[in-house]
């Protein structure tokens, strides 16, 4: 059986929690680090860009647009549907969220191919990657490693021929003040409703609807590890109900929010 072949009713996460738990290092608005000994997800579409590194000698498998890619290091742009198969393959994943100043450097890749990197680019961080995977790196050190790994990846991204000057303007409109409607965004940009929608997707890497969903998820991250119920968190974050939250979370991250807050499976570190 090929490594990427789906197994009926196979768990995407948590198969090896009795041996090694998943770890999440919360960096804040810029992103997070996720480590796991086992990931088998068929079709996720997260809003974050991801730098995925094997913490050991075995490769993982990505399936994107029908292509199977076996590697030990890769960059996956945001909102790109992918399957990820790393069964008993230790992974350390660095996620760059829309709130990061570095997000724009990764978002334009969604229109092109997936950069596979030489794992040797990150060899000098092998010890730190192993400690991250085992949940033994301090939050302060994790933050330093996160920033260093992101900068290494940026240096090896394909050149962006003409960076779009509208990115900063759109980001400012979205990040300051109340969330605008598409009509308000069009008025501020001086373009039609249609072109505002087109620019949002092309320049910012996501639709306005996806952006608003991400903002809700950002609020979920802030509340998920509190004592509040999933239903309370869903309402506080702006979701219709817990089912709406769970569907969105599952589509983006391949696991239900109940798994992410289960201390039997996941350890949380705030950096």
TrEMBL record:
Matches recorded under PANTHER family:
HTH-TYPE TRANSCRIPTIONAL ACTIVATOR RHAS-RELATED
Which keywords fit this entry according to its UniProt record?
Answer: DNA-binding, Transcription, Transcription regulation
Q: Which PROSITE patterns match?
A: HTH_ARAC_FAMILY_2
Q: What is this protein called?
A: HTH araC/xylS-type domain-containing protein
Q: Which top-rank group of organisms is this from?
A: Bacteria
Which SMART domains does the entry mention?
A: HTH_ARAC (SM00342)
HTH araC/xylS-type domain residues are: 164-263
Any Pfam family matching the protein: HTH_18
The UniProt GO MF terms for this protein read: DNA-binding transcription factor activity; sequence-specific DNA binding
